[in-house]
Amino acid sequence: MATATTTRPLGVVTGASSGIGFELARQLAEHDFDLIIAAEDAELDPATARLRNAGASVEPVRTDLGTSEGVEQLVKTIEADPRPVDALLINAGIGVEGPFVETELREQLRVVDVNVKGAVQLAGRVLPGMARRGAGRVMFTSSIAATMPGPNMATYNASKSFVYSLSQALRTELKDSGVTVTALMPGPTETEFFERAGMEDTKLGQAKKDDPADVAREGFEAMMAGKDHVVAGSFKNRIQVAAATVLPDTVTAAAHGKMSEPASGG
Fold first, then answer.
1. Would you say residue 81 lies in a domain?
2. What is the Rg, in whole angstroms, of the alpha carbon atoms belonging to the chain?
3. Which residue segment(s) compose the domain that 258 sits in?
4. Is 5 part of a structural domain of the chain?
5. Domain presence at residue 23
6. CA–CA dist 112, 114 (Å, integer)
């Protein structure tokens, strides 16, 4: 834990044990931030060691951000640090693959708990202090999935649409406060997401993916520049987002459905 004499800025990153979250934390560490990182899996320990090797003081919080108690555990650690939060990166997210009526309701609700409820609760606990102080940067990890309905990933895409909308609304509310809010919108990225969501046997799961380090670098740069959002990764991601803004939802939903259905199903 940092002491009151520490002058390095403090960054908080959720979902930081691997993938985009870890790389976002590494970006902060390499730019002279100390860190509080949170995740629920055992990979948090080696991630902490690697980030400390990058020169940062790192406080890991192993907690379930899909529960109110888990979020409050992270908040307690944040409040125990004498420094204000200079950068809050709300990145934790999960998905579930399959037709909505054929998947367990508890799994769909779990996506809402982590991606939506957890994000709102953490933002609601940390942003007021940033606004009172008149400084800070916030980034929500949304997705290009936010721009289209997602057959076979209905709750996930809807959750990312929620996160994107929330980020842009908060950005407007806070525009004169000194606090900036940025949405990171990656496309398919080489992380454990597809395995955890059961999507390895889909066209999305088998397609070429972006490097999470590149996505994180673009996200970090956009956040530090105070941009409203960034579509990170390959040029194809930007084309998909541009197309989604002009094509009817029925068209983008059909296209997404073909990409997200298991190969054995089509």
1. yes
2. 18
3. 10-265
4. no
5. yes
6. 6
Tell me what percent of the residues of the chain surpass a pLDDT of 70: 79
Contacts of 140 (CB under 8 A, 6+ apart): 90, 91, 119, 123, 163, 164, 166, 167, 181, 182, 183, 184
How much is the pLDDT for 3?
A: 45
**Which amino acid belongs to residue 148?**
M
- Closest C-alpha to 14, from 99, 107, 93: 93
- Strand ranges in 91-190 using DSSP code E only, listed in sequence order: 136-141, 179-186
Confidence at residue 53, expressed as pLDDT on a 0 to 100 scale: 95
Is the Cβ–Cβ distance between 256 and 148 less than 8 Å? yes
Return the active site residues.
Answer: 156
3-state secondary structure of 214: helix
Query: How far is the C-alpha of 255 from the C-alpha of 208, rounded, in Å?
Result: 17
With residues binned 3-state (H G I as helix, E B as strand, rest as coil), the percentages for the chain, rounded to 5, are 50, 15, 30
Amino acid 15 reads G
Digit-coded pLDDT (tens) for 166-189: 999 999 999 999 999 999 999 887
- Quote the CA–CA distance of 107 and 95 in Å, as a whole number: 9
| Residue ranges in the chain modelled with pLDDT below 70 | 1-6, 191-208, 234-235, 238, 241-266
Q: How far apart are CA 45 and CA 177, in angstroms?
A: 36
Enter the pTM of the model.
0.87
Asked if residue 1 is part of any domain, the answer here is no
What are the CA-CA distances from residue 100 to residues 103, 252, 259, 260, 265 (Å)? 6, 18, 16, 13, 15
Residues 104, 163: Cα–Cα separation, whole Å:
23
